[in-house]
TrEMBL record:
UniProt key word Signal: yes
GO biological process, one term: lipid metabolic process
Family assignment from sequence similarity: Belongs to the 'GDSL' lipolytic enzyme family.
Secretion signal span: 1-28
Name of this protein: GDSL esterase/lipase At5g03610-like
Molecular function in Gene Ontology: hydrolase activity, acting on ester bonds
Organism of derivation: Nelumbo nucifera (Sacred lotus)
Keyword field: Hydrolase, Lipid metabolism, Signal
Domain of life: Eukaryota
Phylogenetic lineage: Eukaryota, Viridiplantae, Streptophyta, Embryophyta, Tracheophyta
InterPro entries: GDSL, SGNH_hydro_sf
Length: 356
């Protein structure tokens, strides 16, 4: 690899660190043996795992709101299985590294050429353990492993790939719905982070050297939790658990970085970025303003219905705001495209703060 290319890559890795970690800048490592790729930034493929923040169309059509109107009205213009009015985290990470968004795993039936930019295995509703979906993260990684064993990607392909792993809290919803106790929660959080760390390591051992994992967003600020205050304030109830999860995750990521010479593990700090955007007084730039930042654009007419649902006669049982661009949250759990764009912009501005 030429010297210049290596510099671009180093710069890029450092950029990723700053952009994604926000807080913790891990020592940059270079990929000394990266060859023969054409991407400007040096990465050729993205493999995504995890939940609805990353899913671009794997959830089952028969059961997922994400395949019903008004999901997808902004992009691609109709429901695509994305849990938003438009693009989601995976799309922005792909554009950041200079490639097209990878196809959802279930599109592979349409032909092998489509896998050029990687594959998205993420599945809405999933976690590391059992949740409401059958496709936990282990199953997603198994699917990736099978494709590698079948020779779909070379070692070199994997070496120049990025993995995005999204875990936004479905394990904790499942814990609550099993009536898990508050006393048992710290131990459960530890087991979730341990399993997550094992999953990251496993993806790494398969040959992917750059792995990005999301920190939990502030779950107490999601519309589901702020509904009771008419979307006026974060409920604070889950905050201690979220902070504990994120601390354990950062420790696990530090440890993984310590243990591996040729790999880089990064934390994408959804906690700090969501918090900053939701606190509209403290924003660094003017293009992230949301009128009523905790209020979702789309919601069911009452608690029996969700965004996208209809009654037995096919009558819409939800309301949608006039302009999704004015909302940070799309539904009870997920940001709008504009919301994800703001997360991305905000993280950029940590690196390139606007001139006074
Ligand atoms: C993931 O799901 C599979 C299939 O249901 C199950 O066998 C496995 O134990 C699960 N993994 C974890 C870590 O819960
Ligand atoms: C959890 O508690 C609720 C209310 O007490 C009860 O209705 C429900 O059956 C319980 N669920 C489980 C899985 O134990
Ligand atoms: C990483 O390694 C350094 C130096 O060996 C050590 O001081 C530090 O405690 C390690 N950190 C973790 C999280 O293992
Ligand atoms: C919002 O930001 C302002 C200015 O930095 C700060 O004083 C305030 O405590 C923040 N509020 C919340 C809820 O974080
Ligand atoms: C929700 O609205 C529907 C239609 O107006 C009504 O039949 C149902 O009882 C309502 N459910 C709740 C929980 O208010």
């Amino acid at each position: 690899m030429g010297k210049q290319k290596k510099h671009i890559l180093l710069f890029h890795l450092l950029f990723l660190h700053l952009l994604l970690a926000g807080v913790q800048v891990v020592e940059s490592k270079s990929h000394h043996h990266l060859h023969g790729q054409n991407q400007v930034h040096g990465f050729s493929k993205l493999f995504a795992f995890g939940d609805s923040y990353a899913d671009t169309g794997n959830s089952a059509k028969s059961t997922s709101d994400s395949w019903h109107e008004p999901y997808g009205i902004t992009f691609p213009g109709k429901p695509s299985g994305r849990w938003s009015d438009g693009r989601v985290l995976t799309d922005y990470v792909a554009s950041f590294i200079g490639i097209k968004s990878p196809i959802p795993r279930q599109w592979m039936k349409y032909g092998p050429k489509l896998v050029k930019f990687g594959i998205n295995f993420a599945y809405g509703g999933s976690g590391v353990f059992e949740t409401s979906t059958p496709v936990n993260m282990t199953v997603q990684i198994n699917s990736f492993q099978q494709l590698i064993q079948q020779g779909l990607y070379t070692k070199k392909d994997l070496y120049s790939s990025v993995a995005l792993v999204s875990l936004a809290g479905n394990d904790y919803n499942a814990y609550a719905s099993r009536n898990g106790t508050a006393e048992g929660l710290p131990a459960f959080i530890s087991s979730v982070v341990n399993q997550l760390a094992l999953n990251l390591k496993r993806i790494n051992v398969m040959g992917v050297k750059t792995i990005i994992v999301t920190a939990l967003p502030p779950l107490d600020c999601l519309p589901l939790r702020t509904l009771s205050s008419s979307f006026q304030q974060c409920s604070e109830t889950d905050n201690a658990g979220v902070i504990f999860h994120n601390q354990l995750l950062q420790q696990a990521v530090d440890k993984l970085n310590n243990q591996s010479k040729d790999s880089t593990f990064l934390t994408l700090d959804l906690y700090r970025s969501f918090k900053t955007i939701l606190n509209q007084t403290a924003l660094p730039a003017g293009n992230m303003k949301f009128d009523d930042p905790l209020k979702p654009c789309c919601m069911g007419v009452n608690s029996s219905y969700s965004c996208g649902s209809k009654d037995e006669n096919g009558v819409r049982m939800y309301t949608v705001c006039k302009n999704p661009k004015t909302a940070f949250f799309w539904d009870m759990f997920h940001p709008t495209q504009e919301g994800w764009k703001a997360v991305r912009l905000l993280l950029d501005s940590y690196l390139f703060p606007p001139k006074p």
